[in-house]
Amino acid sequence: MTKKATPTPSADAPVTVRVKPLPRPEPTTATECSTLAELIHSLGSRAMVAERWGVAPRTIALRMQKPETASLEELQRLGALTGLDLLTVVKLAYHQMQNPIEVPTAHLGRPFGSTSRKA
User: Fold this and answer.
1) Which of 48, 51, 82, 98 has its CA at 20 to 30 Å from residue 110's CA atom?
2) Is-contact 112 48, C-beta < 8 A?
3) Contact 59/50 with Cβ under 8 angstroms?
4) Cα pseudo-dihedral 45, 47, 49, 51, rounded to 10
């Protein structure tokens, strides 16, 4: 009996992960992400992500535009926040650096937990 060889993935093949947004009051579904910007965007509003990730909202915008500016500590905290290992998060950042994308726009609407209404 001969055993068929299992094809190994190409080193240039992008990593794709499925992540659920951070817990919110309404039900959520998992989103496929192949870049750091998509991963961050899929987690929810930038204000909420910034608070839970421990970075400023402006830092989130910069990391989404230029993933090479992220520190390993930030990537490690993002991995812990999303349930992904550091290597996977680094691969998402690296893929985006090699294949620049248009950064997704911020989520519209009031932030979660906001009760004030503007007239």
Assistant:
1) 82
2) yes
3) yes
4) -160
